[in-house]
Specification:
single chain, about 130 residues, mainly alpha, 5 helices, globular, calcium-dependent protein binding, calcium, calcium ion binding
């Protein structure tokens, strides 16, 4: 996400930007973790993402919670998984916007373009 050259490396400016985003995401997470459980629910996730500008359905937010919850732990998403969701959404949104040149919210892509975007966003979000 902060590797503008897509070389797999991040310079000091990229790291600084990443650190600032992580601090904002942490503050947002803490704001919506109202019961201070260390986890946010699907509803809380939807509200947090809406504050970030993502207009996502409650069903999609619950899907994200199911996908990113740690098995065997409290229900909901913990901070580290929330940051993962944020980085993946931001990266995938960036890929989408590159193809949505008319800014209509719709794109038409072939299968390989889709896979390229998904692979780029998923593998860049892996530790």
């Amino acid at each position: 996400m902060f590797d503008k050259t897509r070389s797999g490396r991040m310079d000091l400016f990229g790291f600084s930007a990443l650190w600032e985003f992580m601090q904002r995401w942490r503050a947002l997470f803490q704001h919506y973790d109202r019961d201070r459980s260390g986890c946010i629910s699907g509803t809380e996730l939807q509200q947090a993402l809406a504050q970030m500008g993502y207009n996502l359905s409650p069903q999609f937010s619950e899907t994200l919670v199911r996908r990113f919850s740690v098995p065997g732990s409290r229900p909901g998403i913990q901070l580290d998984r929330f940051i993962q969701v944020c980085t993946q959404l931001q990266t995938m949104t960036q890929v989408f916007r590159e193809r949505d040149t008319a800014m209509t919210g719709n794109i038409r892509i072939n299968y390989e373009d889709f896979l390229s975007g998904v692979i780029f966003s998923v593998f860049n979000a892996l530790p």
